[in-house]
Specification:
Number of helices: 5
Radius of gyration: 19 Å
Structural class: mainly alpha
Length: about 120
């Protein structure tokens, strides 16, 4: 089978992981975005709490204890993103499509949700 036909099939599979026949995000892509945002929020909370603790020597001294909850929440959000948010599937599709010229609708969708150059 010629390389361009194989590449075309790979591109179509990657595209199908992101948008359906009507051009709307697939349920997997929607889950990816939802769980990615959840992880980002948990990570921001962790970073903010650590920054606040860093400004106070007593709080910083307690960070190994206080920070555990933030780290657990961040880790759990990551695990949910991987397991329920189809993280690997969607990122593989994005990487395939980002590596070559593709449908402008997909590029627009990827950029709209802030995933360009992932």
């Amino acid at each position: 089978m010629p390389q361009n036909i194989i590449q075309g099939e790979v591109n179509e599979k990657a595209k199908a992981a992101l948008i359906d026949e009507s051009g709307k995000p697939t349920s997997h892509f929607q889950a990816y975005i939802k769980y990615r945002e959840n992880w980002k929020n948990k990570r921001k909370a962790y970073d903010s709490a650590y920054a606040n603790a860093s400004n106070n020597p007593l709080q910083l001294q307690q960070w190994p204890i206080e920070g555990v909850l933030y780290q657990q929440e961040t880790d759990e959000a990551w695990d949910r993103w991987v397991a329920l948010g189809f993280k690997n599937e969607i990122e593989n599709a994005i990487n395939i499509l980002a590596s070559q010229p593709t449908d402008p609708a997909i590029k627009s969708l990827i950029e709209k949700v802030g995933l360009g150059g992932n």
